[in-house]
Input
Amino acid sequence: MFPSGAASPATNRPNERSDMSMETSGATSRGTVDDPERGPAATQDPSALLSALQMPTEGKVYSLALPRFSGMPLFGSHPPFQVSMYRTPMGLAGDGVEPWGPVNEVNLGYMAEVVSGTSHSGAHVDALAHMTIGPDSHWYGGSSAHEHLGDRGPKIGDGSKLPHFITRGVLLDVAGYRSVEALPAHEPIDVGELKAVAAHQGVELRPGDIVLIRTGYLSQWPDPEALARHKTPGPDISAAHWLLESGVVATGSDTETYEVQPAPDPGEPANPQPVHTLLLIEEGIYLFESIYLEELAADEVYEFLFIALPTKVEGSTGSMLDPVAII
Output
């Protein structure tokens, strides 16, 4: 763990970041205009990055992702994740394919696969174009499906625009605070509880942080029946407002939906995902999902250097990740 008095990797947010107008790029509730394609996380000051890199003192690395596999459990409406072989040594011979020409006296071969599935398979980050709302199906920054979506994906705010994430990470272990292995299914986490967890752990949230919330859901991985008993607990809208007010640039959890489902208060008109709407669509705050937090929690590591480097794929709506926490 790191002392709560460590320097904060805060962000610096100038008033304008593109030649787009404020109306087009989208003014946030903070009164600033962030990069319409990458959000406030992309405006990290160099001094904040250097401050974050100074946090580790032990040299211990925690992987925050579980291995993916064909047929793995996923959010219900996502396409299945599959790995299929495209080339094998026997297949090359059987098809008469000679990648290096006819001279191959050592029987050199190779294997190559096709990986199919959504970028939201396993540990991942949502791109700003992931969620849409309204009659025009718009997303963060004012882009809309009518104007900025093609047959090969969104043209603005897609996965190729995702920034790197190298900053102070904070774990809020709600399951640990409740002394349970995992929260029950559909259990909301409100602002009062998150504040209580932070106080109990002796951590504070600072501008520029990435805050990860543990429900214990992935302690049941990959047992489908056990996972079903603990599915979709998460922060409610009050918790989301507190995270936003604290200046975080991203937040995540160990569940597939981040926020509690179904929403306890969908509002009027009814919105099934008010937290995604507030954070991702309105404010450009990135959401990480299916982040593995069991080892961090077991070691009571609540502050760390967080690093996640998305894969830049044009037209994608997110990126699979193998993020790490370093202490």
In short: The first strand starts at residue 61 and ends at 63. Residues 82-116 form one domain.
